[in-house]
Amino acid sequence: MNRIFVCLLLVVASCTNSNTTQNSSLNILDVAGSLNSGRVVNLSEIADTVEYIPLETTNESLVDNIFNDKIFFERGLFYVILRSGDITLFDHEGIFIRRFSRLGRGPGEYSKISDADVDHMTGNIFIENMSTISEYTIFGDFLSSMQFPNEEEFDGLVFLYFKKLSDYFVVTSRMYNDLKYSGIVIDTASNLAKKLYYPKEEIRYVTSLPRKFLSANIKPKLFKYKDKVRIINGNNKYILSVNNDLTIDTAYVINYGKYSPNSKPGKILPVDSPYLWRRFDVFESDNYLFMTFHLGTLAKKPTVLLNAFGNEYVYHHSPSMFNKATGELILLSQPEDYKLGFEEDFHDGPPVWPLYISTDNYMISVINTLDLKRYVDSNNVSRELESIASSLKEDSNPVIVRAKLK
User: Fold this and answer.
1) For position 199, what pLDDT does the model report?
2) 369-378 helix and 383-390 helix, angle to the nearest 10 degrees
3) CB count, 10 Å around CB of 142?
4) What number of CA atoms fall less than 13 Å from residue 34's CA on the CB side?
């Protein structure tokens, strides 16, 4: 990347909006410039160790349906959030500790789970239920609840997801074309502490699209890195960082170049269009950033997956890895037919992609026991992994894959 381009990005980043203070150490995720550099990446390139940890299977500990892949690993505990409303805890070796639920409509209860988070400092669990966030200890004891402000106060702002930030909660909203904010920050007493404004560039794009399309497809994305909350406003190129003192810095700049969807105002781009945008969850460790991007027909080699009926289809997105030390962005090529992620070269197991990155830099993923057994039966894996798979029944709890990142 030439010096002129970098300087221009730094200048633009300093003027994003009144919420943002300039960060002198911006990192550029050059997606446009990385389109022809895709390759298979071995897990050993970014991790020192990999462990397969079966979650203990008992009548009380059954993990049958995980809510939105919500698995946390903090303070030596695995937290598994279930669609049933139950919260199941296991120790670092997968041994079952306890299970609790506060499902209900009374004080200190939730009628359903809309989102969840774990405080890495206390180990406490936060459950969002529509317009309320409730806090519980690892024993299931109710501690407190926080109520979202009335929607009328924000011209119909509809709240979506949240992340805990020290003594605050960062909450995102649906991106409608008549709203000014992508989210708000609220303190633990339910008081409004800060409004998060759309960047002007994103407003121009958002206001050109049909409202129905916006509510379903253009959403702010939150993710955490230690004691910071990051936010990406829709397809905007800036990844902002909300700090404990509620200042906001520009943490990263994504270079979509001429392939940015913002260059096509008013156009709903089809899935096979030659444009770049962010997809799905984002994860960050001390040394790496893991993201998925839509590539459409720009992919160097089309990614092919299998649908539920066993038929091939072209998958127009690519996982990526950004090295924070070198500034290199790598689009991950498929390590095996019909699979995505990092090549697992420690035990020759199935490819790995994160569902969670812990504060102490563990990449957490999960694999269904039946899928693991089938993989081991048809591939040459390590004796250790073969032994683990053979010890499991087909209806055993899932297996955690825990990689210690470099």
Assistant:
1) 80
2) 130
3) 14
4) 25
Give the residues of the chain that fall short of pLDDT 50: 1-25
Cα separation, 284 vs 359, whole angstroms: 9
Do 27 and 362 contact (CB within 8 A), yes or no?
no
**251: its two tokens:** 């943490």
- DSSP state letter for 388: H
Comparing C-alpha atoms, which of 406, 163, 165, 120 is closest to residue 288?
406
pTM: 0.90
> pLDDT (tens digit, 9 = 90+) per residue, 112-131?
999 999 999 999 999 999 78
What secondary structure letter does DSSP report for 287? S
CA distance 88 to 74: 14
The closest of 136, 162, 137 to 148, measured between CA atoms, is: 162
- Pairs from 236-240 (Cβ < 8 Å, separation ≥ 24): 236/199, 236/201, 236/202, 236/262, 237/201, 238/13, 238/16, 238/20, 238/199, 240/16, 240/19, 240/20
For residue range 305-336, what is the model confidence (pLDDT) as tens digits? 999 999 999 999 999 999 999 999 999 999 99
For residue 347, CA distances in Å to 333, 343, 357, 369, 379 come to 20, 10, 21, 16, 11
Cα dihedral value 146, 152, 155, 158, nearest 10: 40
| Residue 12 Cα to chain centre, angstroms | 26
Whole-number Å distance between alpha carbons of 213 and 217: 6
Rounded distance between C-alpha atoms, residue 391 and residue 77, angstroms: 23
How far is the C-alpha of 57 from the C-alpha of 88, rounded, in Å?
A: 12
Residue with tokens 């303190």: 187
DSSP H stretches of helix in 151-287: 200-206, 211-217
Report yes or no: 173 and 158 within 8 Å, Cβ to Cβ. yes
How many helices (H) and strands (E) are present in the chain, helices listed first?
5, 28
